[in-house]
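Note to self: keep these together.
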Amino acid sequence: MTTTRGRAVPRPDKVDAVDVLTTQLRESTASVLTEYRGLTVGQLRNLRRDLAGHATFAVIKNTLGTQAAVAAGVGDLGPLLHGPSAIAFVTGDPVVAAKALRAFAGDHPALVIKGGVYAGQVVDAATIGRLADLESREVILSRLAGALKGSLAQAAGLFNAPLSKGARTFAALQASRAEAA
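Structure:
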């Protein structure tokens, strides 16, 4: 920062970085903050590959992350931003991204999930863990579709029952008249 007449003026590159982070926080369906101390470049590359299609993973400066969170209107991430921090900006299903991060953290204990942003609120690591325990959106929708299909098949059977009973009764009546004649 430079000073002008006793006031601090932020550097343009830092202003741009905050703007980019703010935009990503606003456009993400969720964000997961992590500490990556001890992970190699290759491990971070593998994590990014695991998250591909669901989230982007970026190393951030804590002060810029705090400023971006305030600018995005998601609250104060300051308590979560300590040590070397990285953030996964979730663009797809938050459950799938949370599962991928938890699985990677299980294999690589150096990745620590610190919390994040979900539904516009700052959440802790336990909430991210509960999110990872949920079924994905696709699984929930397929179960709902299966339940609806079963209900519709049952309803169709119930609606057809009086018609088929009437048809059997009519056929029996015709058979009895044919025998009587």
